[in-house]
């Protein structure tokens, strides 16, 4: 009989990770090839008529296998899409079922590889799924039901920035007031905490939480903004067309590009209605070559591939692995499209509104906590989006006297959740 153990789950917008507790020790689970992170992705294989998950799903997508790729499904939590469905393999699949199947994949991989039975769970959640209180509460209830349906009987939620604080607590030198910023794929969450015990105290008792605050902005929102700025103008965003019924010159509707630039809405772009409308626009467009590219994206279902190009550009800028300080945006799927160069200065300008929202969110968190920015002596940054210099600087400059605490940008949250599962 498999050993019953507790788990900590970080179900992320871009990537997910899970840990478990054995013999009182928190251990991060390793998936195939020793990976601790798997893409939060699904692929319906037309050839095999089945769903694939994580790394296998991404591999099939990148190999141009026949099928349908879905990613960033966590982004539907707190939106009207939660009770909707999509078509896979010619039949409707409720998003609720797809989310459950993905969580089952994570759970079953641990149980199979570790010979354990997971029932008790500490699950991470953003401070805000949605800026609307009612939708936020609905999102947690919805996620709890999915986790329960996936086989977890005892479920406890922990704010993700608090989990990151638990993981980083051993790396602080004489902390007093700490700001935690967890900026992931879908949300940005902030916590202010006051230290109240030394390292002999259990991690969960070392800090008094003074404030939690969050905004519904993350890495996928930056992807969307970059896509709208760099890629979508090549497909007709900002161009004009003649009216069907008069001599009036009209802008090409922006709604097509908004869906195409958003990971969790790309499937909406491929509707028959959109295909017919864009075909009409193409005949009357002032720059028909751009609309021709838009039709190529439509007919060849290139939306997710373009989104992956944008994300890769962002990752390269965050890693600093770019020559001359600029990353090139090449679109081999659209060979006649111009190659764009994006450096951190242009990126900073492109996402300036999101950066200002993050700065305001830090200020709001400090106000809730009742502390001044100068009083914060340590800052913990986690989440892959904090690797971008523009994002890191926007948050860190809000607390100028704070020492940066080393933290794993990708695994701090799951490490903290699993440590919380020990108790």
Query: How many individual β-strands?
Result: 20
Main pleated sheet: 6 strands, mixed
Question: From the alpha-carbon coordinates, what is the Rg to the nearest angstrom?
Answer: 22 Å
Distance between the termini: 23 Å
- The CATH first-level class of the domain at 3-159 comes to Alpha Beta
CATH superfamily of the domain at 3-159: ATPase, nucleotide binding domain
Q: Total number of helical segments?
A: 14
Question: Beta-strand percentage?
Answer: 25-35%
CATH architecture of the domain at 3-159: 2-Layer Sandwich
Percent of residues in helices comes to: 25-40%
Report the CATH topology name of the domain at 3-159.
Nucleotidyltransferase, domain 5
Average of per-residue pLDDT values:
91
> SS-based structural class?
alpha+beta
Q: Provide the low-confidence segments as ranges.
A: none
Instruction: Tell me, briefly, the overall form.
Output: globular
Can you put this structure into words, describing what you see?
The mean pLDDT is 91. The two termini are 23 Å apart. Helix 5 crosses helix 10 (303-319). The chain has 14 helices and 20 strands. The chain has a domain at 3-159: ATPase, nucleotide binding domain (Nucleotidyltransferase, domain 5), CATH 3.30.420.40. Strands 1, 2, 3, 4, 10 and 11 form a 6-stranded mixed beta sheet that branches. The chain has 423 residues and is an alpha+beta fold. It has helices at residues 54-62, 95-114, 133-149, 160-168, 219-231, 255-260, 266-269, 272-284, 288-299, 303-319, 344-350, 352-369, 389-396, 412-422; strands spanning 3-11, 15-22, 25-28, 38-39, 41-45, 50-53, 67-71, 85-88, 91-94, 116-125, 154-159, 177-183, 188-195, 207-215, 240-242, 249-251, 326-329, 340-343, 378-382, 403-405.
């Amino acid at each position: 009989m498999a050993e019953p153990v507790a788990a900590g789950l970080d179900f992320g917008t871009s990537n997910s990770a899970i840990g478990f507790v054995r013999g009182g020790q928190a251990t991060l689970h390793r998936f195939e090839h020793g990976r601790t992170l798997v893409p939060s992705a699904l692929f319906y294989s037309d050839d095999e008529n089945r769903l694939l998950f994580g790394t296998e799903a991404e591999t099939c997508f990148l190999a141009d296998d026949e099928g349908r790729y879905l990613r960033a499904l966590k982004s539907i939590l707190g939106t009207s899409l939660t009770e909707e469905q999509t078509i896979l393999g010619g039949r409707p699949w409720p998003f609720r079922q797809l989310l459950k199947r993905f969580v089952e994949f994570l759970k079953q991989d641990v149980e199979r590889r570790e010979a354990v039975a997971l029932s008790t769970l500490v699950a991470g959640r953003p401070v805000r799924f949605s800026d609307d209180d009612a939708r936020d509460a609905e999102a947690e209830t919805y996620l709890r039901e999915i986790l329960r349906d996936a086989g977890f009987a005892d479920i406890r939620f922990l704010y993700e920035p608090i989990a990151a604080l638990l993981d980083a607590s051993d790396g602080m030198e004489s902390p007093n007031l700490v700001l935690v910023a967890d900026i992931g794929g879908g949300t940005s969450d902030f916590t202010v905490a006051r230290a109240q015990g030394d390292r002999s105290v259990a991690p969960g008792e070392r800090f008094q939480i003074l404030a939690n605050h969050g905004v519904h902005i993350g890495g996928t929102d930056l992807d969307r903004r970059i896509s709208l700025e760099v890629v979508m103008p090549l497909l007709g965003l900002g161009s004009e067309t003649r009216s069907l019924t008069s001599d009036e010159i009209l802008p090409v509707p922006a709604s097509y590009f908004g869906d195409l630039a958003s990971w969790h809405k790309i499937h909406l772009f491929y509707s028959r209605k959109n295909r017919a409308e864009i075909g009409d626009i193409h005949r009357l467009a002032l720059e028909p070559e751009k609309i021709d590219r838009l039709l190529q994206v439509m007919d060849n279902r290139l939306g997710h591939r373009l989104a992956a190009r944008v994300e890769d550009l962002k990752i390269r800028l965050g890693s600093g692995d770019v020559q001359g300080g600029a990353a090139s945006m090449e679109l081999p799927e659209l060979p006649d499209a111009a190659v764009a160069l994006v450096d951190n200065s242009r990126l900073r300008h492109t996402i300036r509104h999101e950066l200002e929202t993050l700065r305001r969110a830090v200020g709001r968190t400090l106000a809730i906590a009742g502390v001044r920015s100068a009083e914060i002596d340590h800052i913990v940054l986690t989440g892959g989006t904090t690797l971008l210099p523009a994002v890191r600087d926007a948050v860190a400059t809000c607390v100028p006297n704070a020492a940066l605490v080393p933290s794993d940008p990708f695994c701090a949250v799951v490490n903290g959740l699993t440590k919380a599962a020990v108790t």
